[in-house]
Amino acid sequence: MTVQASNLESEQLPDPSGAPEGDVSKLAGKSPTRLALGRFRRDKLSMVAFVVVALYILAALSAPFLVKFGVLDPTSFNQELTDPSTGGLPIGKLGGISWEHPLGVEPQTGRDVLSRVWYGLTFSLAIALTATILAIVFGAVLGIIAGFSGGWVDATIGRAIDLTLSFPSTLMLLALSSIGIQLMADILPGTFSDPLPNGAYVVFVLALFGWPGVARIIRGQVLSVREREFVDAAVLLGASRRRIYFKEILPNLWAPILVVFTLTMPAYISAEAALSYLNVGIKPPTPTLGNVLRSSINYSSADFIFFFTPAFLIMIIVVSFNLLGDGLRDALDPKTHR
Amino acid sequence: MYAYVVRRLFVGVIMLIAMSLVTFVLFFASPIDPARYACGKNCSPELREQTRNALGYDKPVIVQWTDFLKGIVQGRDYPDDPELRAAAPELVTHCPAPCFGYSVVNTKTVNEEIKEAFPVSLSISVAAVVLWLFFGVLLGVMAAIRRGTIVDRGIVAAALVLYAFPSFFIGLFLLKFIAIKWELVDVPVYTTIAEGGIGGWLSSLLLPAVTLAMLYMAGYVRMTRAFVLESMTEDYVRTARAKGLRQNKVLVKHTMRAALTPLVTLIGLDFAGLMGGAIITETVFNYNGLGKLAYDANTTNDLPTIIGLVLLLGTFVILANIIVDMLYAVIDPRVRVG
Question: Which residues constitute the domain of residue B122?
Answer without folding.
Answer: 114-289
